[in-house]
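thread: overnight batch results

M.L. [08:02]
morning all. the overnight job finished for the chain we discussed friday. pasting input first so we're all looking at the same thing
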Amino acid sequence: MESSGSQSFFGTCLAFSRTRKGLVLIGEIALCVLVLVCYGASRTPGYTGLAICELVFAALVLLAWGCRLPPRLPLLHWGWTDFIRCVIGCLLFLITSLIVIIGHRDGAGIAAAVFGLLAGILLGYDAYITLPTRQGHTAAPTESPDGA
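M.L. [08:03]
and the structure it wrote out:
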């Protein structure tokens, strides 16, 4: 018999996976798995490290946001952390994919590069929707509490 705490935990994770951010993260994970499989089958398996790192980071971010961890850990600015992850991943996927498309003639490597380009575009979109300045944060009050 499951407790209500575990039901609410899974309900929260499932509810987040249906949001726009959740769907984008699931798409990133799926594309990283495709890139990983294709690079593993190609003659250029050295590029699998990028797909593995982005896969792990996207899964951790999905788990953190799904479990509503950011409000519990306010010492880390989650918006900027996720934005920087997306920008770095976007640039690395785009650069790596262009290098493989231009320099290699391997079928699986070309497929991985195309999926890598798609992952780079999706990470760029994720960076755009995650940009903290778009979300309208309010400034913290600068007056002292006693009014002096």
